[in-house]
Amino acid sequence: MKNLLLVKEIYLEGFRNLGHILIKKYFKVFAWFSFVMFFIVLYAFVYRIATGFAFD
């Protein structure tokens, strides 16, 4: 739980005093898109390992 709070604080600190509202919204959307894509890749990798895919 402490790690999750630390990640949340880093996320909030990264967008504090960033500048124009459009830039702030763009980077927030890009950050969430990156998180989602990372978890999709992580899921696909774990699925391949669980099903016995041969990594040749």
What general outline do the C-alpha atoms trace? elongated
Instruction: State the distance separating the first and last CA atoms.
Output: 38 Å
Helical amount: over 70%
The biggest sheet amounts to: none
Structural class designation: mainly alpha
Q: What is the average per-residue confidence, as pLDDT, rounded to a whole number?
A: 88
Number of domains: 1
Estimated share of beta-strand residues:
under 5%
Q: Output the radius of gyration.
A: 16 Å
Total count of strands: 0
Report low-confidence residues grouped into runs of 5 or more: none
Distinct helical segment count: 2
What is the string of SSEs from the N terminus onward? HH
Describe the structure.
By secondary structure, the protein is mostly helical.
Concise structural overview:
By secondary structure, the chain is mostly helical. It has helices at 2-15, 21-50.
Question: Which labels suit this protein?
Answer:
56 residues, mainly alpha, 79% helix
List the SSEs and their pairings.
Elements: H1 2-15, H2 21-50
